[in-house]
Amino acid sequence: MKIKLLGFISIGILMCLFAYPQKSLAAAITEQNNGSSSVIVTLDPEGGTLSTTTMSVTYGSSYGTLPTPTRENYNFLGWYTFRNGGMKITEASKVIKNSNHKLYAKWQGKGTAITLDAQGGELEKNTVIVYYGSKFYYQLPRPTRKNYTFLGWYTTPGTTNTNPNGNITEDTGSANNNDNRSGSGNNQDKATGSKITKNSIFDEKSGKTLYARWEEKKIKLILFGFNEEHYELEVTSGKPCGALPSPTRTGYKFGGWYRYNDYSDPDAKAVTKDTVLSGIDQLKLFARWYPTQSER
User: Fold this and answer.
1) What would the pLDDT profile of 121-171 be if each residue is shown by its tens digit?
2) I need a labelling partner for 118 at 20 to 30 A (CA). Which of 37, 110, 263, 291 fits?
3) Superfamily of domain 36-109
4) Rounded to 5 degrees, what angle do the CA atoms 237, 238, 242 make?
């Protein structure tokens, strides 16, 4: 009788093992006794605020009520299975993972207006809407200013003719623009400010006013004297040329510097130290010579 009883018990154990091929016998017995499997879910608010960051759910059942985090300047979009992308989890979503896991809050930045100071330049409009947690370089217009080259938008006014390397929050390659956990790690210089780049992200630390930075345009002058003698120098666009070289030639008197088309025109005006040039990148000038009395 005892042998038969042991035989029935052995057969029962084998049947349990075949009935639960993916679980241990202990787990199978536990589920049969409890009728459920408890799973701990950790909630990552991703920069937001939560009163609690863990909750207990039941495998195979719905998640039930999910807490709503808060974050200044952002709208909460929901809970997701991955930090970037993944499946959205709602109260009705079934718990399909039978082990402890994590859910991530996803955010969308609210729009805010920033002011643009062209610093002597011209703009069609001096305000633009940008969004927290998003790149905003391409939303910024390009101002114009006669005789100046636009260097970019900066967080401080700075000075003309400077092009400092600033620091602002930079995107480190995240595919999700709602994720602004990109590290800056640099020291910001209040004197030079931060230049807005293609990877700059607008966040809570960003200022509400940006300043255009300019550099004076330069014009390259190439001056041809006599034979292979020539000079090269730079002058500032929109300002007097300043001192120009005075070449010499035996038997001739130097008569000034002229543009190519004006060289043979006796009424043409020479380019002098007081001449103001603009709208060009380069100019070639030629020395005019007059024979001295002894050469006539």
Assistant:
1) 999 999 999 999 999 999 999 999 999 999 999 999 987 553 333 333 444
2) 110
3) Listeria-Bacteroides repeat domain (2.60.40.4270)
4) 75
